[in-house]
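=== RUN LOG ===
request id: a7f3
mode: sequence -> structure
chains: 1
length: 116
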Amino acid sequence: MPRKQLGKKDQLIINIAAQKIGRRMKQLRAHLGLSQVQIAKNLSISVRQWSGCECGDYLLNIDFLILLNTYYQVSIDWLLTGKGNMFMDDTSETEQKITSQELAEELKVLITRLEE
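=== RESULT ===
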């Protein structure tokens, strides 16, 4: 069964989200003081994959999000939404954080849209 083509509005939303996530990935890399080559090597991915994500050309899949979270303790909430702290060990009671349930629902909606 062929996949339904995304509408222009949905594609625009996805492109904007990918660019925002890419900017946060670049910010993360700069904060860590790593080059694209170094971070790609640490994560066992190609430099092209990392660079493509930073540029917003590729969307992160769930496995890659988990890899970043596990290796660098990056907050998935921050990476996807820009809310909260960059790293998991940072704590701030004043910042509103997205719950795991809300994140799971958002990911389900996005995956459903991409599969249609």
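=== NOTES ===
The longest helix spans residues 8-32.
Residues 91-96 have pLDDT under 50 and may be disordered.
=== END ===
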